[in-house]
């Protein structure tokens, strides 16, 4: 019997004043050996030269207009996507070489998967590797307890899954829409596969949100709200569940991968954190107080 055709993948890149990093992001998609790719860029009205860079990539489909933040831009991309699977690639992150072919093959090999995620290489502002994060498997219990196993940069969701579950709740959360969506995947008992490949180079740098301590503090506040919304306790019991989830994750790594994280990723990233980074936001995230 003939093998199933490989699916179209839509990559959505939200951006706002991203001229310092977006070229590498766009090149990492363009230079993939898998060509059945639709790359959509939704820009929030950049004034720093981002649009000049976008014009250098004629294969892109892009829009520049005022939006309600990066998650709103993601939602516009997801809604416009024509691919069977949709991925979000931030304007400061880059795909690893050859990864989209492996993702497409995995989607065909596992039609039962509603989504899949892979592993991550953390890099600094110059692209120098900080450390590699590998996961053992998708575990709905760990996700519900508060650990976002699947960073959205390394997550591919079938378009029909978004059609069924809905888009990101950008009006409710400014920094944790992606985590809320992971919890929603567990609530709907979605089948999420794990591809044991490095998907993305995730950048921690002075012009990004991830390295900003104010953003991290807001993420903790929002994730606590999400856990309570989905029926998990707060306070000391919630903290115990967090420790349980982190411990279970390491046990699964030891059993399935033959190794565990002797040094937590947060510790490895600590030296790259800043009290305040220099990112731009059109919804005031750059004015947050810790």
- The structure class reads alpha/beta
**Roughly how much helix do the residues carry, as a percent range?**
25-40%
User: What distance separates the N and C termini?
Assistant: 59 Å
**What coarse outline follows from CA principal-axis ratios?**
globular
Oligomer: single chain
Rg result: 18 Å
Main CATH class: Alpha Beta
Question: How many H/I helices?
Answer: 10
CATH architecture: Alpha-Beta Complex
Strand content: 15-25%
Overall description:
The structure is a single chain. The chain has 290 residues and is α/β, with parallel strands linked by helices. The chain has one domain (9-276): Spore Coat Polysaccharide Biosynthesis Protein SpsA, Chain A. The chain has 10 helices and 9 strands. Strands 1, 2, 3, 4, 5, 6, 7, 8 and 9 form a 9-stranded mixed β-sheet that branches. α1 links the parallel β1 and β2 (37-43). The longest helix has 23 residues, at 235-257. It is globular and about 50 Å long. The chain starts with 8 loop residues before the first strand and ends in a 21-residue tail after the last helix. The model has no long low-confidence stretch (mean pLDDT 95).
Short description:
By secondary structure, the protein is of the alpha/beta class.
């Amino acid at each position: 019997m003939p093998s199933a055709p490989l699916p179209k993948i839509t990559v959505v890149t939200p951006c706002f004043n991203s001229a310092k990093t977006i070229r590498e992001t766009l090149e990492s998609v363009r230079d993939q050996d898998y060509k059945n790719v639709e790359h959509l860029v939704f820009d929030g009205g950049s004034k720093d030269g981002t649009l000049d860079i976008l014009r250098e990539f004629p294969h892109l489909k892009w829009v520049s207009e005022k939006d309600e933040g990066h998650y709103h831009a993601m939602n516009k991309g997801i809604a416009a996507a024509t691919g069977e699977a949709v991925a979000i690639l931030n304007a400061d992150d880059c795909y690893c070489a050859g990864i989209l072919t492996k993702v497409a093959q995995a989607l065909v090999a596992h039609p039962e998967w509603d989504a899949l995620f892979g592993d991550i290489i953390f890099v600094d502002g110059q692209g120098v590797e900080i450390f590699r994060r590998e996961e053992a498997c998708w575990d709905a219990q760990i996700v519900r307890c508060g650990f976002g196993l699947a960073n959205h940069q390394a997550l591919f969701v079938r378009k029909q899954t978004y059609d069924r579950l809905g888009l990101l709740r950008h009006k409710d959360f400014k920094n944790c829409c992606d985590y809320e969506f992971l919890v929603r995947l567990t609530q709907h008992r979605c089948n999420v596969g794990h591809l044991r490949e490095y998907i993305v180079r995730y950048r921690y740098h002075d012009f990004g949100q991830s390295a900003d301590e104010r953003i991290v503090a807001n993420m903790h506040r929002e994730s606590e709200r999400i856990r309570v919304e989905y029926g998990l306790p707060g306070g000391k019991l919630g903290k115990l569940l967090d420790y349980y989830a982190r411990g279970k994750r390491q046990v699964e790594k030891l059993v399935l991968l033959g190794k565990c994280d002797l040094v937590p990723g947060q510790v490895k990233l600590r030296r790259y954190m800043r009290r305040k980074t220099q990112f731009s936001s059109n919804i005031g995230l750059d004015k947050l107080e810790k």
